[in-house]
């Protein structure tokens, strides 16, 4: 297998890229999972930012890559904090 | 799509596991992506089957692992066909 070159060649250096941030949230039921996903969809629309999301019946994984982190920082977006607050609220 | 293996055959050896089936659907906008996800959620509820789903702003990936394929086959579920029909309908 050829390791291949980086197709999206970062302008600076690959070492300087921020690592992707990942969250994993677990829920007690599909209803709770879906409720969280609906709230996340509203948050994405409000902040105009769409992270990569993967989910199954009782879990949701969210990934925000380096590019996303830069975009959110530049906008001073509270996306990450609001996302975590949603989970806390759902569990209260 | 599935080449004539019997998915409800007794689980004899790990070599005989069905490969995970993966779909990737692309959409022209986040609104279309979300519409599809909402319809998928309804389908999952109706069929009581929850595949692994990952999505971003304009794409959705669906994975159905060996276990899921066996469950759907045993129930004679039309989950996969209905899922594909949703995408076709969305694009019409």
Automatic annotation (TrEMBL), chains A, B:
InterPro entries: PCD_sf (IPR036428). It comes from the Bacteria. SUPFAM superfamilies: PCD-like. GO terms for biological process: tetrahydrobiopterin biosynthetic process. GO terms for molecular function: 4-alpha-hydroxytetrahydrobiopterin dehydratase activity. This is 4a-hydroxytetrahydrobiopterin dehydratase. It comes from Acidithiobacillus ferrivorans.
């Amino acid at each position: 297998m050829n390791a291949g070159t980086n197709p999206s060649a970062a302008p600076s250096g690959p070492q300087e890229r921020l690592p992707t941030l990942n969250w994993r949230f677990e829920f007690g039921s599909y209803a709770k999972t879906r409720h969280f996903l609906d709230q996340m969809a509203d948050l994405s629309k409000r902040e105009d930012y769409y992270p990569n999301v993967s989910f199954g019946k009782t879990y949701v994984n969210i990934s925000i890559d380096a590019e996303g982190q830069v975009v959110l920082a530049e906008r001073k977006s509270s996306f990450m904090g609001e996302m975590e607050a949603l989970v806390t609220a759902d569990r209260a």
